[in-house]
Amino acid sequence: MSREAAVAQGLRPGRSTGGHRESRTCRPDRPHAAAGHALVRGSALSGFRELVTELGGAPDDLLHRAGIAPATAGRYEEYLPFRRVMELLEAAAESTGTPDLGRRLGLRQKADVLGPLVPAARTARTLAEAVEVFSRYLGTYSTACSLWLVSGPGDGLAFVEFRSALGGRWPYPQGVEAFLARALTVLQLLAGSSFRPVDIHVPHRALTPQADYESDYCTAVRFSQPRPGFTLSAADLGRPLEHDPVAHRVLVEHLAGTAPRDRACLVRPVAELAEQLLPKGVPTVEDIAARLGLHPRTLQRRLAAEGLSVTDLVDVVRRDTAERLLVETDMALGRIARRLGYAEQSALSRACRRWFGVTPSAIRRTARQSGAPEAAAAYA
Description:
Layout: H1 3-10, E1 39-41, H2 48-54, H3 59-65, E2 79-81, H4 82-96, H5 101-108, H6 117-122, H7 127-137, E3 145-151, E4 157-164, H8 173-191, E5 199-201, H9 210-217, E6 220-222, E7 229-233, H10 234-237, H11 245-258, H12 267-277, H13 285-292, H14 296-304, H15 310-328, H16 333-339, H17 345-356, H18 360-370, H19 372-379
Parallel strand pairs: 5-6
Antiparallel strand pairs: 1-2, 3-4, 4-7, 5-7
C-alpha cells in the first residue's frame, strides 16, 4: 500500500460505508491519492433528484453513471465516495445546462443534512464556539473536508476556511458552490436570518453573472481565491446563540463517540502538526509525540500498525504543500523551501523531481499557462 493510500485509510470513518466505495484505482504516486478514498454522507445529495428532475434531467441515470445507488442519495446513514459525488454534480450541471446547479442545490438543502453537527453547534454559547464544533467534528459528516478559523484580511476580521482532501485544489466548482451555499444556510440558522458574512471567497471564476452570486449569497463574493470560505467580523463571532449547556454537552459527547476513533485516526493530527512545524525544521517523532501527549514509541507503534511512519507523513505533507504553493501562489522558491523545512532551495528542486518528475519552476510555469487545476493534472 502506498503512503498516500495509507493516509486515506487513516481518514476513513470507522464504520461501514454501506457497500459504496471508490472503485477507481488511484495512482499511488499521486500526491492526492488519498482523495480517492475520502467519503461524504449521502445527505450531501439531499434534494438532488428533485432538482435535476425540475431541470428536465434524468437523476437516476446520472447517479448510476456516477456509480452511486439512487436509494443512497439523501440518506445521512450512507457514506459515498467524495470524488464520485463531486463528479456527479459536474455531470448534472452539464447535462441540464445549469451552471449554478451546485449553488441551487446547497441553498435548497436543510441544515439537517449535517446530522447532529448543527444542533451541537446551535447550543454553543457563541458563533465562535459553534465554528469550533464544526472544526473539530466535521469528519463525522465527511472525511473529505476540514474547517479552519484563521486570521482575516484585516483588523477585527477572521476567515472560516474550508480545506479539501484534494490538497490545495478544489477542481469541482459545482461541489464547492453547493458546500458554500449549505454552509451559509447553517450560519444563518445559527446567527439569525439577517446574518451576512463580510464576504465569501470562491476558488474559481464566476460561472454565472456576479450579480447572481451576490443575490444568492446576499453578500460580496470574491472569485479565483486560494481557498473557499467566509470572512467574519469579531462581532459576528461573538454573537450569542441559543446556549443550552446540558444539550450541548450531550450532543458533543455523541459527536465524539461517532467520530473516527480507530488507530488510523492519528494520521490527520500528525499530518496537521507536521505542516505547522515544518517552517521551523523537519519535525521529529519526539516533537509530534510531545504535542499529542504520547510517548514517542507509542506514536511509532500506532503509525506502524497502518504501515506508516512520521517520515512518511512529513513527506506527503511536504509534497502537498509544495504543490499548493507552487500552483496557487507567487511565493519565491527559496521561501517555499524554507516553509517545507529545507535548508537549501536545491533540496526543494530535488524533491520536486522525485515527486513530480519536473522542477519547481516547470510546475509553476505550467500553472501560469494552463490554470491551476489543469496544471496540477498535467504533472500528476
